């Protein structure tokens, strides 16, 4: 084989290799490829692997389909109650429609510029319609959901991307407003505490008055029952006395005289000086006198 033929074969093999190289491309697992023929999109390739194209006429542009993070610049925004807060937010997004993204956005930088513009305008609108307390409570999740929905409508759908999530990294008060807001919160909490104490004192007075009323009713009822029982007991005692004394009036007279003497001469140091005369001594005379009496 002559040297000229060898050179021709080498050139031919080189041309074949170059043609094969220019007619094949690889689509990675996490990327989407768009085949452009003379600058016009012809096909969107989402399946990974080795693919073929027309040399020279076709060009391949790839886009990463994985979730990307975009951190928006810190912004100072007013709330509905005219309190300013410092908000730092980030957005997680990914390409959903590669062809739309290529036609509208072309690059991630352009898409993120649009996301930033819409995000700041949406944050200003949404936070401007809520009080400061909502940004510091679980209601913050509703605020982030509203921002995500608006960002999807204005920035994601036109660019062929999907907003996966919107989060607040930090929500703080400006340094110059912190002390004033804290003082206002202290005053508000003090007013709430005073109201709670007043309500508790009112309920205590009501319960105390109710208890006093019940006590008065119970005591009055107990006294009424006691008076009834005492009256019934006195009536029964009088009945028994009357029955007993009616059987022996002389003994009753003697018994009452002894009671009168016991009460009149009470004490160990009481001494009676005088004649043994009078009603007290009529039962202590001689037998004849007693019988006469």
From TrEMBL:
CDD domains: SPFH_HflC. Its main location: membrane. One of its GO terms (biological process) is proteolysis. Keywords: Hydrolase, Membrane, Protease, Transmembrane, Transmembrane helix. It is a single-pass membrane protein. InterPro entries: Band_7, Band_7/SPFH_dom_sf, HflC. GO terms for cellular component: membrane. It comes from the Bacteria. Residues 22-185 form the Band domain. It is found in: Membrane. One of its GO terms (molecular function) is peptidase activity. The keyword Ribosomal protein does not apply. HflC and HflK could regulate a protease. Belongs to the band 7/mec-2 family. HflC subfamily. This is Protein HflC. It comes from Dongia mobilis.
